[in-house]
């Protein structure tokens, strides 16, 4: 049976793979959201945040003497590519992207809350602080998506109503 620190290390590897998946998904979306400039700008901002998050999680893993899992990173990358392909090219892609991103952000929020609790329990203050910073970014992104989903939905439907091609 693994000890508590090994469990934390494994969860951090999961988080690193999760961030890799999110990064690849967001990068693909950002290129296709030209007709939704506010959404595109926020996604591009979160691409930068997610890259920072990946780097920070990697530093936590290394602090515990581990390395990132190529298997977990590879699976996360594959899932990100599959998710991006699912919505790519559909007329309502922007709406579906916001819905999907909102779900991903809330999953990440739950993961970081658990990591914070585990790090606190184990006296890993630096890891706890990093996870708290990441959690704050994830909560901000989820909140932005939540507030803007109705606006993006309405914008999409207005395009449909006037007969404009439903651009991404």
Topology (elements, then pairings):
Layout: H1 4-32, H2 37-63, H3 70-87, H4 93-121, H5 125-161
Helix pairs in contact: 1-2, 1-3, 1-4, 2-5, 4-5
CATH class: Mainly Alpha
The shape is elongated
Estimate percent helicity: over 70%
**Portion in beta strands:** under 5%
Alpha-carbon Rg, integer: 17 Å
The CATH superfamily is: Ferritin, core subunit, four-helix bundle
Helix/sheet category? mainly alpha
Question: What's the story with the biggest beta sheet?
Answer: none
Total number of distinct structural domains = 1
The count of DSSP E runs of length 2 or more, i.e. the number of strands, is 0
CA distance, first residue to last residue: 49 Å
State the helix count.
5
CATH topology: Ferritin
| Mean pLDDT value | 88
Given as residue ranges, the uncertain stretches (5+ residues, pLDDT < 50) are 74-82
At CATH's second level, what is the architecture? Up-down Bundle
Characterise this structure.
About 5% of the residues have low confidence. The chain is built from five helices and no strands. The N and C termini lie far apart (49 Å). The protein has a single domain, classed as Ferritin, core subunit, four-helix bundle (Ferritin, Up-down Bundle). It is mainly alpha-helical.
């Amino acid at each position: 049976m693994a000890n508590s620190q090994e469990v934390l290390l494994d969860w951090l590897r999961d988080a690193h793979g999760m961030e890799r998946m999110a990064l690849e998904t967001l990068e693909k979306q950002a290129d296709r959201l030209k007709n939704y400039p506010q959404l595109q700008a926020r996604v591009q901002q979160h691409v930068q945040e997610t890259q920072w998050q990946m780097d920070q999680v990697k530093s936590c893993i290394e602090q515990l003497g581990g390395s990132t899992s190529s298997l977990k990173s590879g699976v996360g990358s594959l899932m990100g590519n599959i998710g991006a392909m699912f919505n790519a090219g559909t007329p309502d892609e922007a709406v579906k992207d916001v819905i999907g991103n909102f779900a991903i952000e809330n999953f990440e929020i739950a993961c970081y809350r658990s990591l914070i609790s585990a790090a606190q329990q184990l006296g890993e203050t630096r890891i706890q602080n990093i996870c708290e910073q990441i959690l704050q970014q994830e909560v901000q992104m989820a909140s932005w998506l939540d507030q803007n989903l109705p606006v993006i939905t309405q914008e999409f439907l207005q395009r449909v109503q006037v007969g404009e091609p439903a651009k991404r």
